Amino acid sequence: MHPPELRARARRLYLDGATVAEVARTVGLSYPTVRHWCKDRPTPKQQGTALRCFRCRDDMHAPTDPAAYAYLLGLYLGDGHLVTRARVPVLRIACSDCWPGLIEACDNAMRRVLAEKVQRVQKPGCVNVQSYGKHWPCLLPQHGPGKKHQRPIVLADWQRPIVEAQAGDFLRGLFHSDGCRFANRVVVRGKEYVYPRYMFVNESADIMGLCQQALDRLGIAWRMNRRNSLSVARREAVAALDQHVGPKS
After folding, report:
1. Which end of the chain is less congested by CB atoms within 10 angstroms, N or C?
2. Residue 147, phi then psi, degrees to nearest 5
3. C-alpha to C-alpha distance for 107 and 86, rounded to whole angstroms
């Protein structure tokens, strides 16, 4: 099966005035194949998730719901796993039983981004929210063998403007997966002070860097309290992050 990018290139050459024979020589395919693409069936038959994959459609250049995509990307970088060894790839995101609202939000994000069907598989202490789809690898190019903190995690060029424009939703996904909001208690000269605080913990320096960049974009102060742990504790910073993340439910 030829990649959709090759079909799209052949179609563009043909529409620009090249003959079928010229296109076939340029793309290195047989004349009958190119003729079928350009004349017999100029619009490829798309089924399932292919209809919603903006990376594989000529008439779509961005997700239909950028906020949902940024949120889902954050969840995936935290507690997600994309299995590509199976005949049909499956995206799984582990959500704690303690947060039914998070499970619902994850399910909804998958449906808004690509999924036709979403399954919830109960595991000890958590629910695997999962969806099968051949085009999940197109939308999550960070997938690969091994643990995320043992391999580079870099945004693709086309992902950067989405994450930059939807920094709040991206942070919401990161903090909903590998972060928390809690009441921090400190004692100063015998008096106890209680104030809200956010923490984000991740072993991947690359993912931590993406979190830091998103916070900087929103002007939210943060500091590293450990090698793998980021803290947002200033009152105004917590209030600003509350507008985008808020406590889990």
Report:
1. N
2. -75, 150
3. 21
